[in-house]
Fold these 2 entries.
Entry 1:
Amino acid sequence: MRAEPTPTVVLRTRPLGEADLVVVLLTPDEGKLDAAAARARSSRRRFSGGLGPGMRGVATIARGRGALLRLEGFEPTADHAAVGADLTRFAYVAYLCELTDELVLARHPDPELFAALCEALEQVIAGTPRAVHLRRYELALLRCLGFLPVLDGCCVCGQPAEAIAGALAFDGPRGGLLCVQHDRGAARLPAAAIAAIRHLADGGEPGPIDAAPPAIRKALRDALQAIVRSHLRRPLHSQAFFAALPRDASGEGV
Ligand SMILES: [Zn+2]
């Protein structure tokens, strides 16, 4: 039996028997994995720092002969207290974790995705939670899964997609931009929203997008949500939390 410390984000927990928990973890080098945390429910001292979704820390994971790994210890490395004190942060963190858990396959490690999730969590927990942080992470996740929309030409034929009155035909679930021959009545997305997708997908800073007009941010949200939804098997529970959040003055929502 070896026990190895590894950087970790807790994505979810579920009960295992009377006293234990299964903890779903994201790690940089082994991807998403399940580990049994013995007595995590029966003893408060066992994981006294908590095992809440979105917690970042160093996990000590033991590999036995059985199928299930064992979580021997978890030391938080970032302050998580703000998540329990604020519904907005709670909702954002729940969404980031549930989206990751639903879309990432077990044991497909991606250190870049791990870093993107840690960065998004840091921004919404320690900083001010803004919708642009969710959009940036959605694009990091779509990139990891190979689902980024095509933005440099028609996603069917590769021909240039031309803007008409400042908007381009775009269908995320079909693959991205569309030329006039293939748009089949697709919705039009403002060119500024396309530019925002490109900016965030390239790892650009969230600031300029956060400062964009509300209509552009809303178009960006709707375009990315359509792509994300097309890959989900069911609606996310965490999206119900967003409905309970106060809207900002623009009515943008998240
Ligand atoms: Zn085309």
Entry 2:
Amino acid sequence: MLDIIQIPVLNDNYIYLIHDPVSTETAVVDPAVSEPVLDALASKEWQLTYIFNTHHHNDHVGANLELKQKTNCQIFGSEADRKRIPGIDVELKHGDQVKLGDQVAHVISTPGHTLGHIVYHFPDSHALFCGDTLFSMGCGRLFEGSPTQMWQSLQLLKDLPGKTDIYCAHEYTQANGKFALTLEPDNPQLQQRLAEVKQLRSASKSTIPSSLDQELATNPFLREHSPAIQQSLNMTENEAVKIFAKVRELKDRY
Ligand SMILES: [Zn+2]
């Protein structure tokens, strides 16, 4: 199993350190800034081997060059973003596998938030590092891709095992949950999760990771099949992509 450390930075970003205790290899996912990463590495006495980037936004790649210079690590990112990921060494595409010691991550292409967005799934540790594609009770804004692309990307993530831990890159859970409740006010799992989240946040605690099972039960961007959501939007179940697009549009204006 991997050791996973969550580092909160900036307003609401999470950086993750992933460490394989057998090989002692360590990766950082989406380093926005360098200092908290270097501090965490030092306190664990880990050496940085790799940077895994999910997409090119600055709050995900901001510390790439500094960390590479200071640790000599290798930088992995999307082939489609090769010109936008500072210091990229290894270009990845859908279906590629990345190794951290003996632990294998499957690379899944998830265009939508950006066109080159990729996520890293470690099946043996049931961990998904999904950047700004999937959030707890939400999903990333569509800056570059179409609703159809993002919907298809999310379908790929829905097919992962339910016990998969969802390590997303932002703490947006409470605001997402409030919006979700406007569409499904009577969903008991959503009510329960939101109550839990309120408690965690008022104690300044993280709500991440969630699990895929939890997201399937509460995340409106994964729930076009929900009769309550269809009713809220006055749409029918054979309009899945349209329902997704409408939920995204409503959230953008919420
Ligand atoms: Zn982003």
